[in-house]
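Long-time lurker. I teach an intro course on protein structure, and each term I like to show students one example going from raw sequence to a predicted 3D structure in token notation. This year I'd like something fresh instead of my usual example. Would anyone be willing to generate the tokens for the chain below so I can use it in lecture? Attribution to the forum is fine with me.
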Amino acid sequence: QGSDKAYLTNLHTEFETHQDFVKGDDRRKWDKEFGIKHYAGVVLYNVAGFVDKNRDSQQDVFFDILLNSKSAFVRSLCEFRDLQSKVAKLGDVKGDNSFSRGTVKRLTNRAKPTVSDAFRLQLQVLVLVLENTNPWYVRCIKPNMEKSPSIYDEKLVLDQLKYLGMLEIIRIKKQGFPVHYLFQDFKVKYLCLNIRNRYRVPKDEKEAVRFMLKSEGMAPTEWQLGKTKVFLRSCVHEPLEEKRLATLNKSAVMIQKIW
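-- Reply from a regular --
Happy to contribute to a lecture. Here you go:
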């Protein structure tokens, strides 16, 4: 008969010397939790209920209720009721017969598939989808744990940014040239900055961009010209954008004043 404590003891025995395994700073909690060093930091796991959750089998009555729903979406949630056929189908799609047989065999050794089996299968399906698509991720930041407006937990937000790798992405972006425009787009957008010299701007779009950046006094090391685009560092783009907005606001006020 397994137990949470026995499971934790086995973890300590097996992974105690592993570089990414952490017992925790508080010795009083060594019999209740363990930690894993992830990319952004250490995550602690409490083993209370681990074994029971692993034994938690799917409830047929629950699926029967979902299947009788008037909502097509809710009915579609019953798709994972038959895990064995689902896993077999997944194995056929991947072309990996050993994967399919092994997973089905593990499931047939039990009276009923558990919630853990369903979760594992959903992860496998997700991995399969990601391998066959080019996904775009929407990174969501939770400002507080109370789900209340106008509350900003600075430490919570910073931890999320670390775990998402956003700080590293920002650092890399700053070292490179994160802003880029087509020559024509740059010329149209920022020609208003020095409208008096518009007749001196070369007709060639690449040379026009070079002329405009030099006219604004931008250091050559902070921007680069490619074949069709200009690449800018943030220290170049931000002053240009601020000056452009100021020019547009000034022009708008002038138009409103006269007309």
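Some talking points for your students: Confidence is low (pLDDT under 50) at residues 93-102. The chain has twelve helices and six strands.
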